[in-house]
Amino acid sequence: MSGNSIRDTFFEECEELLEALVEGLSSMEQDPDDMDVVNAVFRAVHSIKGGAGAFALDRLVSFAHTFETVMDKVRSQELKVTEALMHLFHRSGDQLADLVEAARDDREPNAESEAAILKELDSYLGEADKDDSFSFDAVTLDFGAAPADPDLADDATETEAALRLFHIRFKPSPALYANGHEPLLLFDALAELGDLRAAADLSGLPDFDAFDPNDAVIAWTLQLETSEPETVLHEIFEFVESLCDLDIREDDGDAQPPLSVVPPDDEGIAPPPPSPVRDGPAPGAEILDPRADSQRGEARGPRPTLRVDLERVDRLINTVGELIINQAMISQRIEELDLPAVAHLTNELEAYKLLARDIQEGVMAIRAQPVKPLFQRMSRIVREAAEATGKKARLVTVGDSTEVDKTVIERLADPLTHMVRNAVDHGLEKADVRAAAGKERVGTIRLSASHRSGSVFIEIGDDGAGLNRARILEKAIEKGLVLPEAELSESEIDNLLFLPGFSTASEVSNLSGRGVGMDVVKNAVAALGGRVSIASTPGSGTTFTIVLPLTLAVMDGFVISVADQTMVIPIASIIETIRPSQRDLHAVGTKGVVILVRGAYVPVVDVAFNLGLAATRKEAGEGVLLLVSTESQGLTALRVEAIHDQRQVVIKSLESNYAAIPGVSAATILGDGKIALILDPEEVVKLQPAAPYFPAITPPKLELHHA
Amino acid sequence: MLDANEGPTEAQFEFITFSAGNQSFCLEIMQIREIRRWTPVTKLPHTPDDVLGVMNLRGAVIPIFDLSARFGLGVTADNERNVVIVAAAGGTTIGLLVESVSEILSVAKSSIQETPDMKSDAARQAILGVISVGESMVRVVNLDAVLDQEGGAAA
């Protein structure tokens, strides 16, 4: 059992490492000489290898080893980063991700691509490296302290064996001990690299009276004579670097004061010797190796995080939802009491309200996650799609740190993958065509995420040729989706893409055109309470925009009344509200009614009647009309009795205890403790009144009485 | 301590008895979460007559059924004594509107008789058995059947 959970932890860590790897590789692309990035990539691969070794995942280990060895050559600047090499690194990263996934699910990985990449990687290695027989036998589960990694010795053979003297100053912080690290182990690891001399600097020790056993006051100065490169030293401190002051520098021959050699002490319990003189490097000699310095900065590492069972978070979110409702109820009750204006109570109540909102926002933020991992996955999709179609493409991401609800991110992965593939396959032109059009040969896919007015906007843009509207229309007619004589506006033509069973690729590539159409994308987005739109400019590209709600747990809605019942309608679905005037309303047929909205006739739907809550339809001129855009009949005006308020409501499922009800998406609890139904405009429009005497599928009709 | 009562004597079952549609029913006490006074509910569109609507039970949205109407015994008339029995079965929580709650009944398993063959289908399906109490007869409600029916009605 516990073995499994450690394994799970390993794979979770792998995911993070792979993210770091992908990120590192894309920064490498921009600046291949940035050693920090190269080191970060190396470390990611190395850590995966280390963990995989502990679980005897041999294939993963051996692939990671080869990858790492090539990476190391770049690190030691034996290899120059070329475009081809970069490409290989990307593919190796993908392959590594596949291997990790295969290992996790206990599947057989794709041996073919693995062998191909391995071969290419090998071609970058000299003979010596190839013969370098690889063994991995350090089964160390303690990733935290991994002191001596035998393959670090491998690294040594690749560099020249000149002995060098390093001065190391190491001052642990209390957190280092708190995390269970042991300086002695680190020193042991250093000692394995060469001749180590260590001296404890006890000058930090306070008076005995003021001594705090939890504080870390002892520092060490170490001298190491070794043939290892400096990076190896840093690797030993890799896991504690953020927990201590570390200064490693190479002795470049100038005279350092000889150290008073004292055997390394373990904890700070040694008697304080009278040593007022600091033994460390003289302050004047602060010529730091720039590499060491920057590494130190980078090694601060990710901020500490906490892994929590998602269920617990959801439970918390539910409870906080109750709290908000409870707060609204208390406010309302107190108002009802009609107390004399007791300022205190009002103030406290207001404070309570703000606190409750704060807690809610905080809790929602737990579920919110940056879109970065999702976007990073897309870079692979772009790469693969470009390869499969023989086009050149790169991915540019904007707003990686935009946070979106976890569920949204999960459910967006498939539609986004599809859209990105489409963008490469259908959107971008071939390199030659691009060049002929005076564009850069490499096409750009732009993924951006942003928060705007309470919604999340995700845009997938390409700088391709734009939609070929003539072709789309032709195809739609050919497939019988549109009548040949139909007159369609540009945006109507664009939206044909979202019709089920539509594919425009003239030649069916093995990439898209597999029957999964944009309609699937649209439905997936709609299921998340969002919508998709297209904007396309011939010659300069197409952009799809997905607009999503920030969270799935609360929603902004209009509080309306329908047949004397209070209901809520999502604001996102409402385009505008209209107070109808008699002269804009027109009868169609015997019972239908339409309203003139800026020159267009829009059918009017009586919500109460469609929900079966009213036996007859209201007078045409009564109530308020909410203009919504629906899939089934385009623009529609929903008639409700009145709009009362606009507020944020907590969404409660009806299905958990009862069943789905047509026209109603969920329920919420209002300030007075009553339940209000949340309407689904799309479904309300589709609902045919219970009585079967309307044969036609025309918009519901209305008796019109002219005054 | 409890064990002393078992063995020779039979396990006792506890029921809460109530009346709906002028008939006496009961539910096993373990299925009942609480008993509340009737408060107006939010009506649901496109639902049968026996579904009164939904109610807020400490943040959960639970459907309220008119038990009498569900058993085909007519719609329960508005009355101050009407109560809602909140019961849970199979992970769902529902409320049942009844005319009044009477008492707690403690009976041995053997005194629960099988449902006599009756003509009213709806009622027979929803009753697990009957218990004779003094001169009256109490019907044991099969909550699962009520729920199943509910699923069917909603589909």
Helical percentage of chain A: 40-55%
For this structure, the CATH topology of the largest domain in chain A is Heat Shock Protein 90
- Uncertain runs of chain A are 130-160, 254-300, 505-515, 690-707
Morphology call of chain A? flat
Poorly predicted runs of chain B: 1-8, 150-155
CATH class of the largest domain in chain A: Alpha Beta
Q: Give the proportion of residues in helices of chain B.
A: 10-25%
- Terminal Cα span of chain A: 78 Å
Write up what this structure looks like.
The complex is a heterodimer of chains A (about 700) and B (about 160). With about 700 residues, chain A is an alpha+beta fold. Chain A folds into 5 domains: about 1-130, Up-down Bundle (Four Helix Bundle (Hemerythrin (Met), subunit A)); about 150-270 and about 290-300, 2-Layer Sandwich (Alpha-Beta Plaits), CATH 3.30.70; about 310-370; about 370-550, Histidine kinase-like ATPase, C-terminal domain (Heat Shock Protein 90, 2-Layer Sandwich), CATH 3.30.565; about 555-685, CheA-289, Domain 4 (OB fold (Dihydrolipoamide Acetyltransferase, E2P)). Chain A has 21 helices and 22 strands. In chain A, the strands form 5 sheets. In chain A, strands 14-18-19-17-16-15 form a 6-stranded mixed sheet. A 5-stranded mixed sheet of chain A has the order 6-8-9-11-10. Chain A has a 5-stranded mixed sheet with strand order 20-12-13-22-21. In chain A, a hairpin with a 3-residue loop joins strand 15 and strand 16 (about 590-595). Chain A is flat and about 100 Å long. Mean pLDDT of chain A is about 75; it is low at about 130-160, about 255-300, about 505-515 and about 690-705. Chain B has about 160 residues and is an alpha+beta fold. Chain B has one domain (about 15-155): Beta Barrel (OB fold (Dihydrolipoamide Acetyltransferase, E2P)), CATH 2.40.50.180. In chain B, about 15% of the residues lie in helices and about 50% in strands. Chain B is built from 4 helices and 11 strands. Chain B has helices spanning about 1-5, 65-70, 120-125, 145-155; strands at about 10-20, 25-30, 30-35, 50-55, 60-65, 85-90, 90-100, 100-110, 110-115, 125-135, 135-140. Chain B has a 6-stranded mixed sheet. Chain B has a 5-stranded mixed sheet with strand order 3-6-7-5-4. In chain B, a hairpin with a 2-residue loop joins strand 6 (about 85-90) and strand 7 (about 90-100). The termini of chain B are far apart. In chain B, about 30% of the residues are buried. Residues about 1-10 and about 150-155 of chain B have low confidence and may be disordered. Chains A and B meet through helix 12, strand 21 and strand 22 of A and strand 4, strand 5, strand 7 and helix 4 of B.
